[in-house]
Write a structure and sequence with these properties.
heterodimer, A: 443 residues, alpha+beta, Rossmann fold, Dna Ligase, domain 1, D-amino Acid Aminotransferase, Chain A, domain 1, 3 domains, eight-stranded antiparallel β-sheet, globular, B: mainly beta, OB fold (Dihydrolipoamide Acetyltransferase, E2P), four-stranded antiparallel β-sheet, 0% helix
């Protein structure tokens, strides 16, 4: 049994894990860097411990120090949250070797799913659909022959990276050589790994992901899908469940398939299987996220599950939850400290920070008024999640809540979020990953 | 010959410097990549010319509007 959880994270997710633990009667140890010394989550934990320094490398990525603190505090388990060390198999292994329960999938899973090319092959081998793609390609000539087999246009992607850097669309054979050189150069300089691979390019896809819970003994269930197509710079902005405007039977079948494959593979704890749905009815595996997801609250609002508590119960060897029928619609907007037009990050002191308190609205934030938003960590200020009996009501509640959210001191993306929520295409449920670029006038 | 001061658009730190002082640059070439809030923000040459000066080093903290490089055309 887990009785004292060290939370190797900060901000909104640290606060969320503390809340889940407190409700279960478990003690918590919260960590803070110099930049987070006045953070609001610290007052909610049973104990706190200091990680000297500001940068992520010195603090929330400092594995040795974090495990040393766990030992000194007498923690029996570690919850990695999302980001930082959440998908670091070396950290999970070190935690387990130190006698701690790692609240997440086994380290082998973190490693296996971190290799995007191998993950795709594993799911494909177990019958989950994938779009056409290649293994690693070592030269422009290899890339050209792989692209020929897949069919143009294709996407060249760095194997070791993410965040959209180094991705190149290749429309025909003449573009291969130059695109290959650019992708390889950027991959090498940005990720210290110049290997690249190819995937079929999908025009304006839908990003649909499936919430999985698994017991590591072959049992796995899904808690439905989340639609996450509204993105900027390949980062999600708005997520909702159920996914609008898709064949509900097809989505449900894919969810069943996702859970079945995860069960067959012996996956454990929670995870999210991300897919793309193409406009002509195709479905393809994108990746598996081996952690709690930023947008997990959307699923909680429509199912009544507490996914963080489920993570803890599953880590204790407990049973899978019964997943209820979905109730109504939930939609989340991520409020970022960034300019709504240029999308550049914004730092500063939160002179005013008043989250809305409204019926059917849940706000998850790691910030409070008077705190400073620093450049050291990500730009997420708050997640605002609204629930309603219909999609229209959920969107209406979210719009009202965003307008009522008072933030002075940093620039925010609220104007962009509300413009998406009022967009005619978005309201009809015709969402795709290009919507933000179109609204900003660059696509 | 004109001197173009290249300014950081954000508060953050210098993640990688991709070009060397004296390098020939074309408008839009990425000189360095800054990091702020886990985002990589490329700093591009504002004009064709020569990268006359790099005013920062890797891991330096930079403020919004700070001059990080100078391009001469």
């Amino acid at each position: 049994m887990v009785s004292k959880v060290l939370i190797a994270n900060r901000g909104a997710i640290a606060r969320r894990v503390i809340r889940a633990c407190s409700e279960m009667g478990k003690a918590t140890v919260a960590l803070y860097s110099d930049a987070d010394a006045d953070a609001v989550y610290l007052s909610e934990a049973s104990e706190t411990a200091h990680l000297p320094g500001h940068s992520a490398v010195e603090t929330y990525l400092n594995q040795d120090l974090i495990l040393d603190i766990a030992r000194r505090c007498g923690a029996d388990s570690v919850h990695p949250g999302y980001g930082f060390l959440a998908e670091n198999s070396a950290f999970a292994t070190a935690a387990i070797d130190a006698g701690l329960t790692f609240i997440g999938p086994n380290p082998e899973w973190l490693a296996a799913m971190g290799d995007k090319v191998a993950a795709r092959k594993l799911f494909s081998d177990h019958g989950f659909p994938v779009f056409a793609g290649s293994g690693l390609v070592a030269s422009a000539a290899e890339a050209a022959s792989a692209a020929q087999a897949i069919g143009y246009p294709v996407m060249l992607k760095p194997a070791g990276g993410g965040g959209g850097m180094g991705m190149e669309i290749v429309r025909d054979e003449e573009e291969v050589e130059a695109a290959f050189k650019r992708a390889q150069a950027i991959a090498g300089s940005a990720f210290d790994d110049s290997s690249v691979y190819l995937e079929q390019w999908i025009d304006r896809p839908r990003h649909i992901e499936f919430q999985i819970l698994a017991d590591g003994r072959g049992g796995a269930v899904h808690a439905y899908e989340r639609e996450c197509s509204v993105q900027r710079r390949n980062q999600k902005l708005i997520e909702e469940s159920p996914a609008p405007g898709l064949d509900a039977n097809l989505v449900a079948e894919t969810a069943q398939k996702a859970a079945a494959v995860c069960g067959e593979l012996g996956y454990n704890n929670v995870g999210t299987l991300e897919t793309l749905f193409s406009r002509d009815g195709g479905i393809g595996f994108l990746e598996m996220n081996t952690r709690i997801q930023v947008e997990h609250g959307v699923t909680e609002m429509v199912t009544g599950l507490d996914l963080v508590q489920d993570q803890i119960r599953l880590a204790e060897g407990g049973l899978l939850p019964d997943v209820p029928e979905r109730n109504g619609y939930a939609i989340e907007a991520r409020v970022y400290a960034e300019d709504a037009e240029t999308l550049l990050p914004s730092t500063g002191k939160l002179h005013v920070f008043k989250p809305p308190m409204l019926t059917g609205v849940r706000v998850e934030t790691g910030y409070a008024q008077g705190q400073t938003v620093t450049p050291f960590y990500d730009a997420l200020l708050a997640k605002v999640i609204a629930h309603g009996s219909t999609r229209e009501l959920a969107i209406g509640r979210l719009t009202v809540a965003l307008r009522a959210f008072e933030i002075i001191g940093v620039k925010t993306n609220v104007a962009l979020l509300t413009s998406v929520l009022q967009d005619a295409e978005f309201l009809t449920g015709n969402v795709d990953t290009g919507i933000v670029s179109r609204l900003l006038g660059n696509g | 010959m004109a001197r173009h001061e290249v300014e950081s658009e954000v508060t953050g730190n210098v993640w990688k410097i991709l070009l060397e002082q004296g390098a020939a640059v074309a408008e839009g070439d990425v000189i360095m990549i800054l990091e702020s809030m886990k985002m990589e923000i490329p700093v591009e040459a504002p004009a064709d010319g020569t990268l006359a000066e790099i005013c920062v080093a890797v891991e330096d903290q930079v403020e919004e509007d700070q001059v990080v490089a100078i391009v001469e055309d």
